[in-house]
Amino acid sequence: MIRKIITIDEEKCNGCGLCASACKEGAIAMVDGKAKLIRDDYCDGLGNCLPACPTGAISFEEREAAAFDEEAVKRHMENLERAKAETAKEAFACGCPGTAPRILGGGKTAESGHGGCPGAASRALGGAGSEDGLSACHGHSPRAAVSQLRQWPVQIQLAPLGAPYFQGADLLIAADCTAYAYGDFHNRFIRDHVVLVGCPKLDPVDYSEKLTELFRRNEIRTVTVARMEVPCCGGLERAVRTALERSGKSLPLEVVTISVEGDILS
Whole-angstrom Cα distance, residue 137 to residue 249? Predict the structure, then answer.
């Protein structure tokens, strides 16, 4: 039948995944860092995904397509929910040594502070480390704790591949927990770097796919990986090494391992 259905322009798609989250029928999935319409009969043609796209990559077209199948969508969503439940079960009940509870000794002082969605909009932040105090903690002098963050967003899954700040960047790819474990993280690691963060334990995605495209499309200068000592954090390092290999780029790579007590181990 001829009907209205969405179409996705891969050139405009930045891989943010907001459309996939907005689609209540699960018709859109992220494949190789790009949004894809996985089955015509999952798309109801109402276009809930259109306003979620920040780059205008999604539009309507009329073409030969299978009719919307509500029962097939219901089964598909049930399968997705089942997969999510299994992923959560594996993530939190695996007995991984990195999730073992422990009490850490005190005495360490943290010297630094601290779809379509407006909060996920890409932006470059100026004045990192400046004395104007715009990023300083409320109620303290600018010298007390000035953020060194230079760009937004910072989550690997939200970062747009074509953001201009990646060109010529010294890239820091950090595990989520590192900024909490290492007290001077902003000054030691974030200063003068573009930052991406993620957790291979909690995010049910393969980071290497998006990072491969990131390395291919941009002229990155150097890559630093900041990871925790726990075994599961090795997934982030492996994803970066795999992405570099697949991208064909030979970039300077430094891997810094931080202990749960906040010490740099290597």
Answer: 39
pLDDT at position 85, please?
A: 64
* Shared-domain flag, residues 216 and 88: no
pLDDT tens digits along 33-79: 788 999 999 999 999 898 888 889 999 999 999 999 999 999 988 88
CA 182, CA 166: separation in Å to the nearest integer? Answer: 25
Decide if 97 is inside a domain. no
Tell how many helices (H) and how many strands (E) occur in the chain.
6, 10
Domain containing residue 14: 2-92
Examine residue 107 and state whether it is found in any structural domain, yes or no: no
Q: Tell me what the pLDDT averaged over the chain comes to.
A: 81
Is residue 193, in this structure, part of any structural domain at all? yes
pLDDT of the residue at 121? 55
DSSP 175-239: ETTHHHHSTTHIIIIITTSEEEEE-TTT--S-HHHHHHHHHHHS---EEEEEEESSGGGHHHHHH
Q: Please give the Cα distance from 17 to 115 (Å, whole number).
A: 8
DSSP E strands, 81-212: 123-124, 151-152, 170-175, 194-198
Q: pLDDT tier at 105 (50, 70, 90 boundaries)?
A: low
Encoded tokens for 127:
């004045």
pLDDT of residue 160: 86
**Cβ-contact 236, 230 below 8 angstroms:** no
Whole-angstrom Cα Rg for the chain: 21
In this prediction the pTM is 0.53
